[in-house]
Specification:
- The chain is mainly alpha-helical and 152 residues long.
- It contains seven helices and four strands.
- It has a domain of 100 residues: Arc Repressor Mutant, subunit A (Orthogonal Bundle).
- Strands 1-2 form a two-stranded antiparallel sheet. A two-stranded antiparallel sheet has the order 3-4.
- A hairpin with a 3-residue loop joins strand 1 and strand 2.
- The longest helix has 18 residues.
């Protein structure tokens, strides 16, 4: 038997000297493969919060309405020309002003967390077109129930 065969057999044997006791904490780190590292994983970053898109659009509608009231622009059509928007889009923005005052406050308080929008503008326009303020509040509550789920 050659020396090489003997060393291969020794390498295959599990002797107590082949084992190492690790006393510090070990953390799993997933990348292309799983690694054991002595450093803990980094903390998850705080969620990124910003005003929801519908809140910004409602604020824009208020700003545009104030520009018309102050006489900076003659009407919605002139506003559309000046901003490079269609008259239909300006009308959609102004439709958000039909919401009840308390619903507008709630919309302005909405936040998008990590890019997830809480409400689509189309849904908000549907609430605004619900009719009276009482009907708008009922439509808003229906939306809130579907968002949270029936048991929440």
């Amino acid at each position: 038997m050659s020396d090489r065969q003997t060393s291969d057999e020794d390498a295959r044997k599990n002797t107590p000297s082949d084992y190492r006791v690790i006393e510090e904490p070990i953390y799993w780190r997933r990348s292309r493969s799983v690694e054991l590292t002595p450093t803990p994983p980094p903390d998850k970053p705080e969620p990124v919060r910003r005003p929801a898109t519908v809140a910004r659009q409602l604020a824009l509608a208020h700003h545009l309405q104030a520009a018309i009231e102050r006489g900076f622009v003659a009407d919605q059509a002139a506003l559309a020309r000046k901003l490079g928007l269609t008259r239909a889009r300006v009308t959609q923005l102004f439709d958000l002003l039909m919401l009840a005052a308390d619903l507008q406050e709630q919309v302005l308080a909405l936040e998008a967390v990590d890019g997830a929008e809480p409400m689509a503008e189309r849904t908000l326009r549907a609430v605004a077109h619900a009719g009276t303020w009482a009907e708008q509040r009922a439509a808003w509550n229906d939306w809130a129930v579907t968002l949270r789920g029936p048991g929440a």
